[in-house]
Fold this sequence. Notes:
This protein is of the alpha/beta class. The chain has helices at about 35-40, 45-55, 70-75, 105-120, 140-145, 165-175, 190-195, 200-220, 240-250, and strands spanning about 5-10, 15-25, 30-35, 80-85, 125-130, 155-160, 180-185, 225-230, 255-260.
Amino acid sequence: MTCISNLYFYYDEKLDIIKIAHCCLDRTYNILAEIPTDKFYNMPDDDFYNLLKSIAFTHPTECRGSRCECFWTQTHEIITIHVAISKECNLSCPMCYIKNGHHNSPKRKKLYLDVIKKLSNFEFVVLKLTDWGEGFIYLDEILDIMKNYKYCKKMHIITNCTLVTEDLLKKIVETCEYCTLEVDIDALSSNIYERIRVGAKYSDFKKNLALILKYKKIYPEKFGTIIHFTEQDNNINMFERLKVEKFAKIINSEYIIDKQWFSDSPIYEN
Ligand code: SF4
């Protein structure tokens, strides 16, 4: 029996099913369960709870991931639940895997929030948002849901940093014990930044980033940051990467560098 420490929720729009996968750190996904949405909506909370418990502790196959947390932790608990159902984003970056616009259908939004609601009584440690779109989308509503969470009090939000507001940061402080903000910074030169983050203004990005750093300074016990840099055609020069890396060091942040944008995983195709 292998313990699963990361569960990853995503939605297959063509088949209208929610897929639950084990997500390894190197983005290897093993699908563990598929729930048609009508079944999901009719599923009593206890059945949902039991399903998650059962898949978490009866992982049938050897994980194929090379950086699998499961083998590190062996804690026999679900640490992170990663809900990547929303595809909504306010930007239109050319390299993004969300093709054909970035607008959620009302159905996808409802599903995203309903999955988060259904997790209210489940024992896990960190709620992670989102891998598809912008993590601050719907954050106000999500924090309202999270106020009623029985166990999970920590969040990990992947963000392009353009929708960060003081009110939302305050609400995170009130709601969460700890929040990791994973900020995608693929450039720190304004011309390269605006070529990559189409729809964003570099000046707004810098202002919001400063706001995050202000809150991290005031509440060091509440906020952590990860600076995420992804190499791509527009920024593939050592200088840009070193600039971001240096910035991460100055602000005492974790730093991740990805050498490729597109994941091989089939989940990015739908
Ligand atoms: S900010 Fe991220 S999710 Fe949004 S369009 Fe750009 S790459 Fe895609």
